[in-house]
Design a protein that fits this description.
three-stranded antiparallel β-sheet, Integral membrane protein, 5 strands, single chain, about 220 residues, 6 helices, alpha+beta
């Protein structure tokens, strides 16, 4: 899908003043972050992100309409400054006909990219039950290999897969920890959602489905 169609599709949702706007560029977190920044200029605020679609190829970002007065002022100013956005005109914070942020928007888009990446990685960070299942699968693999291989080869193969699991778990957790630190340094607050997962919110925000500025 072209840049213009991505932007036009999102702005059509915004024009209907929907409480929730869905953004799903093809598999790209930077693109999703750039579009989320545009939505913020129209009075929306970041809600959550996750991967979906065939082979999890889509990064789905959910933006919520912010009812605070400042959001409406920001929305009105954006509409005035960019009357042809979505129809080939300029778009707030982005280069013409591109999802590349302008210099003044780079920092804000980087923060949104961290928020999106942190939420998306939650699908791949293993909890205790996932680790148990992973190592159990390694044990099963070892037993299967014993059927037509020597014990040494079977154990070595199963151990190699287990080592890969361990490295992947640690690398993922380390990367997510670094993102969490950047978000904390940027002033975001760590909270737990109803499933016990960690999320980051701006001061004064609540999780979706609770109280404003997110819609119920």
């Amino acid at each position: 899908m072209s840049v213009e169609r991505h932007i036009a599709g999102m702005l059509q949702q915004i024009a209907r003043q929907q409480d929730v706007v869905e953004i799903a560029p093809q598999g790209s977190t930077p693109k999703a972050a750039a579009l989320a920044h545009v939505a913020e200029q129209y009075g929306y605020t970041y809600g959550m992100a996750y991967r979906t679609g065939f082979k999890n190829s889509l990064v789905q970002v959910r933006m919520y309409r912010d009812p605070q007065p400042g959001a409406r002022v920001r929305e009105a100013a954006t509409i005035t400054a960019h009357p042809q956005a979505g129809n080939g005109g300029t778009v707030p914070g982005l280069e013409q006909s591109s999802l590349k942020p302008l210099p003044e928007a780079v920092a804000a888009v980087a923060v949104l990219k961290d928020l999106i990446t942190f939420d998306v990685m939650a699908q791949y960070i293993a909890d205790r039950s996932q680790k148990v299942k992973g190592y159990l699968a390694c044990a099963v693999l070892t037993v299967i290999l014993l059927i037509d291989r020597s014990p040494v080869e079977a154990v070595a193969s199963g151990g190699a897969v287990a080592l890969l699991f361990t490295v992947a778990f640690k690398v993922g957790a380390s990367r997510r920890g670094k993102i969490a630190q950047r978000l904390t340094d940027a002033g975001f607050l760590a909270v737990r959602d109803e499933q016990g997962g960690q999320r980051f919110l701006r001061p004064g925000q609540q999780l979706p489905g609770h109280t404003n500025p997110f819609a119920a």
